[in-house]
Design a protein that fits this description.
The complex is a heterodimer of chains A (136) and B (255). With 136 residues, chain A is mainly α. Chain A has helices at residues 27-58, 61-68, 71-98, 110-133; strands at residues 102-103, 106-107. Chain A has a single domain, classed as Up-down Bundle (3 helical TM bundles of succinate and fumarate reductases). Helix content of chain A is 68%, strand content 3%. In chain A, β1 and β2 (106-107) form a beta hairpin. In chain A, α1 (27-58) packs antiparallel against α2 and α1 crosses α3 (71-98). The longest helix of chain A has 32 residues, at 27-58. By secondary structure, chain B is α+β, with helices and mostly antiparallel strands. Chain B folds into 2 domains: 5-118, Beta-grasp domain (Ubiquitin-like (UB roll), Roll), CATH 3.10.20; 121-249, Fumarate Reductase Iron-sulfur Protein, Chain B, domain 2, CATH 1.10.1060. The N and C termini of chain B lie far apart (67 Å). Classes of the chains: A mainly alpha (136), B alpha+beta (255). The interface between A and B is medium-sized, with 26 and 34 residues.
């Protein structure tokens, strides 16, 4: 922002140098950055699912299961599952901040929106689990 | 005896317990960067950090500079960094810090003019850029019509109207501290305050739907946590993102 002419200060202000480790300064900043970093593992989960779909379409499902059964891949996916769950829970908990639902002037409280989100998530997960885990 | 109650209480307090304030001093032309100076002030249950600073100014060191006015959490001028947290010093009590010391610094993210006084010109320019007033069209002066609102219409924006421009949210926001071009929490919350007002005819979309405005926010949420008036700027910004996203998909939807 430029100042109007004639209003320059006689003395200089002090500007602190840029803090390269700002995220380490408070616990809340650190948790925020960790939450953001879980996005990388969420992206990996999407890639893994796309690989699965690709294998099913190309008829290379055996190769895919062999890859998925390798210990390092299991380790990666366990970490990715934890990160994705953490990301999903925090994402759904923040939803009431972006969506203000009013019913006849009454504002639906945050816990109801969060509860609705988590219930829908649980219902979808149970549905998917039913189709995957049912005996053929 | 023409000793006032205040003087008497100060004397009694001084005889009992004190707490150390570590105050950041920056004297242009004398200091190249802020240095800390220690002061011992009386520790009483009803003294806020601001009372401690006023004690320093009145009794110990008249050269200390800081802003304050109302002493009751309304004017928004006494915001400082207290033990690393942006706080209104009039609402932060000395007893919250046990035996001390209490470290008092200027609000982070703003250039320091002197001691605890920061340059707020950038914030004021941002504030006026969102046109924080009721925008009306097609009305002739003088304005004589009364526009009554229902309690529901008032409730839609009231929370955001509680902002006192204390800038604690800017100081707590790592996005603003790292990138001073970011429009920032309070300005966006106040833009939403008028957008959600049934009497307002503007939408401020031109200043909100920008990378440096709502889209610059990464939703750290610290603005809401530190807000002394429970404005919830983070909510205002996320609602702004949703509105902007819907408008780009549904061009006919206004809000």
């Amino acid at each position: 922002m430029t100042r109007p002419p004639g209003s320059e200060r006689a003395t200089s202000t002090y500007r602190p140098p840029r803090d390269a480790f700002w995220f380490a300064r408070t616990r809340n900043y650190t948790i925020f950055v960790l939450r953001e970093l879980t996005s990388v593992l969420v992206a990996w989960t999407v890639v893994f699912l796309l690989l699965l779909v690709g294998a099913l379409l190309n008829g290379t499902f055996q190769d895919f299961t062999a890859l998925a059964a390798r210990p390092w891949m299991i380790a990666v996916n366990v970490v990715a599952l934890v990160a994705t769950a953490f990301h999903a829970v925090t994402f759904l908990n923040l939803a009431p901040k972006a969506t203000v639902v009013r019913l006849d002037g009454w504002r639906v409280p945050a816990w109801m929106i969060q509860g609705g989100n988590h219930s829908a998530w649980l219902a979808l997960s149970v549905l998917i689990a039913y189709f995957i885990l049912r005996s053929p | 005896m023409d000793v006032t109650d205040t003087e008497e209480s100060v004397r009694q307090a001084a005889a009992t317990r004190t707490i150390r304030l570590e105050v950041a001093r920056y004297r242009p032309g004398q200091d190249s960067e802020p240095v800390f100076q220690d002061y011992d002030v009386p520790l009483t249950a009803d003294w806020a950090v601001l009372d401690g600073l006023n004690y320093v100014k009145d009794r110990l060191d008249g050269s200390l500079s800081f802003r304050w006015s109302c002493r009751m959490g309304v004017c928004g001028s006494c915001g400082m960094t207290v033990n690393g947290e942006p706080r209104l010093t009039c609402g932060t009590f000395l007893t919250e810090y046990g035996d001390g010391p209490i470290r008092i610094e200027p609000l982070k993210g703003f250039p320091v003019i002197r001691d605890l006084v920061v340059d707020i010109d950038d914030f004021l320019a941002k504030l006026s850029s969102v046109r924080p007033w009721l925008i009306r069209e097609g009305e002739e002066l003088p304005l004589t019509t009364e526009y009554a609102q229902t309690p529901e219409q008032l409730d839609a924006y009231k929370q955001y109207s509680m902002c006192i421009n204390c800038m604690l949210c800017y100081s707590a926001c790592p996005v603003y501290v790292l990138n001073p071009d970011f429009l920032g929490p309070a300005a966006i919350a106040l833009a939403q305050r008028y957008n959600l007002d049934s009497r307002d005819m503007g939408d401020r979309f031109d200043v909100l739907n920008l990378e440096e405005a709502v889209w610059g926010c990464t939703f750290v949420g610290e603005c809401t946590r530190v807000c002394p008036k429970h404005v919830d700027p983070a909510e205002a910004i996320q609602r702004g993102k949703l509105t902007a996203a819907l408008r780009s998909v549904l061009p006919w939807s206004k809000r």
